[in-house]
Records
---
Amino acid sequence: MKCPNCDKEMDNKTYCKMEGFYHWEDEETYYQKVEHEKFVCKSCKITYLDDEWKIPEKYNPTKKQEKTILFINNHLDMDIQPLTKHQCWLDIGKYFERAKRTPLHDDQYYIDAQQYYGMDESDFC
């Protein structure tokens, strides 16, 4: 797995742990072996643990970057996640000009016409 900040390969520190859970029907506590997926970047100290990123405060994106990524997502119908400042900077540089030229469009008429009249997208062009 690559670090979202520095694009270096992250160290794999996946581990197994015995976790207990209480079974309410027979009132017993059972233990099972659970594997936790963990990756750590040595240089940035960014951690990926079980589908969650733990990012130090200094690498978090600014409010302006988050709003710009939201603007890009809305205009280009994308799902870019703002994880780090560096990643936001790269994504903004890549997609911002195209997002500025793309107007927001209302798909509601298209969806209604398709549902009620059996039209497809070739009827709208």
---
Amino acid sequence: MTAERLEEIAFERSGNPYAQMHVAKIVEDNWTQQYEPLHTGTPKIWRLIHHGRNESENEVPTEEVVLTVQGIIAKMDLPPFKEKISGKSTHTQFLRQSVTLIGLHTPTFTRAVENIAEIHAHFGRSVGHNNLQQCGIVGMHRNEQALEMSNRYFTPKKFAGQADELPFGMDVDPHGHLRAAAGDSLVHIEDNVVQYFEQVKSGHLDESKFISTKPIKFQVGDIVEAQVSVVLIPQREKKWKSTLILRTLTLLDGRYTHEAAKLRLQSTQAGLNPRHATNSLKRRVGYTDEEVGTTRGKLSKMRVEDDD
């Protein structure tokens, strides 16, 4: 049932003309002419960009590509951050929030994995195939293909340029440990921000909306949607590594997570062993009022509201 539900959701979201470009849809005829790598920033990294068009001003603004993908959470390391850490540690700048998604062999997720490999190869034409490390975005989790994505909490201040330093929200850093560890050399900027949403019913059966939510709500087994950027980051010996930068994570359906938890509890109470579930460039992230999705002829109206 979980796989069928995931594919149903992914089919709807990938066909939504108002949503961000879906990973499963990006590789089409002449796609490499619309989406190209750009070497930018300090230190310089490669980002996938798209030349859009502002018809009213006859301009062609350049935006970083933000892609969407739906999957089931197999592994995660998300806020709130509760560990006290030393600001003197050299590992502080590498602290990150991360999530690994699997697709249970569903067609849309499988195409997304294949297209990530295509994007990886596309980057190779800019840096040279021999200078590109093996694609680390696609991995395996319990014999399931998986996509790994993350975002660091910090950027070294010397690389932040004119970007504004942003405070950590209480949902991310409730005890102030990250803020204290930043010291004078690290900053939290827009590029480090991950937004969290939840899709909820909006009164009518055919309507739903996206609201801001807390990262603590997410659990292994949830069906989610991630918005990501694809980048190459420099490595030793002039090598490059492709990675997915997590921009947003949205809870779409948590029913199967709850059902699995109840079954594990019942098994434990019955004296049985519980079974494991198999289960800077501008960018646009989040959701808009105009985003309308069609699920096999069923209209869903989406809008964004802040969570109280």
---
Amino acid sequence: MRQRCFELLEQSARTSAAKLKYFRLAYGAAGGFGEQVSIDEPKAVIETLAADAKRVQLRWQVAAPTLSKSAAKVMLNLAHIGLDALVRGGTLDIGVEERDDVTEIVVRATGPKIAFDPTIGDALGGRLDPAELSGRTAPAHLLSLIAERSGGQIQTHAEGDALLLGATLPHVD
């Protein structure tokens, strides 16, 4: 019994540390003073959050060793929204492709009973009145502002057992 208590405390500490790192990367300075963030940091955070979500398989298609801070924030938040949608488990696919002038981010959550609040989709698309923002929609609204500021966009599509979240972020000089 005592050993099990220590295991639970250790798991709780790991989860708390991952959430703290998530908030730092997703909303804070994100990896220091440089313009680029190593993909290893956000990837490790998402892997820890997915492991805590239970019954979620995580698949990566990210070749770039670094991302801009804006792209890292968008990827982290879209992945978190995707994880939240997988209430009964499933698969979370994360893809990032960097081309000459744009970063494309795609997060696909598939599983039984996808739970996606349409107001989050409205906030991601910049269609939610700021007066209607809540604790659940504010991060999505922030992503909308990040995309808008760089001349990019965020799109969502929820249907049946799948949720697709995508962002295009032009590189800003």
---
Amino acid sequence: MSFYRAAKAGLARDTQVKIDSQFDVDEAKKCLYWIAKISGEQIEIRDTDDKVEMADSFYTTLKDGVLLCKLIHTLLPEGHGIDFSKKTFQQTKNLAFELARERERIGMFLNKAQEYGVPVTNLFQTEYLYERTNLVQVCTCIRAIGIE
């Protein structure tokens, strides 16, 4: 959860500003529409051209990893998908467990995406989505899945 961290300063701040400036609103919308179409899930996609608003929407839609897991599950051949009966997908009232499960789901998605054939260079680190440090790379990974 990026809001628990101290604000970045100096070179780290400059780097983060540069990464955030590369976020493309239209690309994020395309990714979300494609995920909705492939997974069959109903997703609320904001119709906005504001980078901050769209980045917030993109992040909150994908951060728990469930939608990403549903996407990759529909693309993988039968028997290679994700087992949604695992504890990882069960709701819990304990916040610490829920946060750990969200990270685990993102990790499961990344492992299955690599199994699907997405090059390692197009994957992202769990923290990029979970801590919201590089949503551009998350879009790149989703586009790479669409290409494979």
